[in-house]
Amino acid sequence: VLSHNLCTVLNVPHDPVALEEHFRDDDEGPVSNQGYMPYLNKFILEKVQGNFDKVEFNRMCWTLCAKKNLSKSPLLISDEDAFKVWVIFNFLSEDKYPLIIVPEEIEYLLKKITEAMGAGWQQEQFDHYKIALNTSREGLSAWELIDLIGSGQFSKGMDRQTVSMAINEVFNELILDVLKQGYMMKKGHKRKNWMERWFVLKPNSISYYVSEDLKDKKGDIILDGNCCVEGLPDKDGKKCLFLIKCLDKTFEISASDKKKKQEWIQAIQTTVNLLRAGSPPPHKEARQKRKELRQKLLAEQEELERQMKELQAANENKQKELETVRKQLEAAAARAAEEEKKRLQTQVELQDRFSLELEREKMVRQKMEEQVAQKSSELEQYLQRVRELEEMYKQLQEALEDEKQARQDEETVRKLQARLLEEETAKRAELEKWHLQQQQTIQMTEAEKQELENQRMMKEQALQVAMQQLKQLELERKEALEQYEEVKKKLETAANNTKSWKDKVAHHEGLIRLIEPGSKNPHLITNWGPAAFTEAELEERQRSWKGKKATSE
Q1: Could you list the residue ranges forming a coiled coil in this record (predicted)?
Q2: Range 307-321 average pLDDT
Q3: DSSP helix/strand/coil, 336
Q4: pTM over 0.85
Q5: Based on the domain organization, do 201 and 252 belong to the same domain?
């Protein structure tokens, strides 16, 4: 059952045949830890790919060990909170068995919980606890840490709900890698409406849910080094807006106030910068630095202890030598009572020698104290140097980013120069081609110019002929007009004569109507009335005009 549950939680296929084969010859009763470990390592742990839910795995391990080891005394925290403290212990404990959490990590965890509760940190109280702890052991086990937090020793005045919320916040940060979370408004991509969502920021994504119980997940914003975040001005009645730009989508979000907006922009920008630099989350990087610093201090402390032991051994040897000399003196005094004067003199010399030795020992002890003080000063200088190196490392990272950008700009300029050179070569070839075409065109233009000159001469001659014909036509038109005026005058005279004769007849004869002979030819009608010439005369004139026109052309 244990093997099957482990395979289920770790997403590893369970092989019952291998289990039966491994324990086939084991007829000695229940399997011990040492007997089960080879099977666990070979058939389960070696097949783990890392794509499993670590919280569920921790919960299964908690189920196996909590009932046996958890204290029976009443605690101020629930079993769920105790489980979260146990998981945090596994994250902060030292990498050696049996697992313990050292006082520095205990202080770090209690500070995080106290800050999450909104209370002040009692450094003096913890210093007393730390002194009492260092006198008895190196650190606490998981169950002792649960008892410490559950006893309320460092959370006096806080209710169970506040402590539970603080533990849950620290658990989300350290174990679930939750860098920031809270309610904000998000603009939809399809309907373009604004909805309130619970946002959870992690090292490589931002998940948003309907509420903070995290049951109904609505989507993820995948973060990478190409993402960026920037503030937006207020619009459409929404304030405190900012924009998250990714490769495929852009997200508009509205915070509750300017402080929350700035906090979210800073947190997301920090996460993107860590992704670009390939750095782990801040709490993991800080844990690694604290561990390296402890190892460094431990190595220096062991070196000091070794030197102190060497000095102590040398001092003990000196004390033994002095004890031997004292015994020799006592024996000499007992043997040579008669040589009292000589013994006293010898004793005075020995006392002087002892004084010199004591002075020498004092000087040695003083030098050791100076060395210890010097080591402490060197330790402070080393810590200062570590901080300076961290600052220098950040500056080097910024310089590296600038150098990368400069190289990219140089490559872009080089490509642009190459493209411009190719375009210049193509234009030069095209200009040479145009030059050749222009020369050919000039040659062709000279020939065409000569031909056009000939045509112009011919046209001028034709124009002169046409001008002469036009003058001839003008003369004929004038003659025709003169003839027309003469005919018009004749018609007016005839009309007047006819009118006077008709008046006379009407006056003398009354209603008598004269019957006049009509013309046998049809009359031509013009714009001024009956024509003064016949149709035959008109045809004769048209033939004459056509003949003159043909002659002029």
Answers
A1: 283-504
A2: 88
A3: coil
A4: no
A5: yes
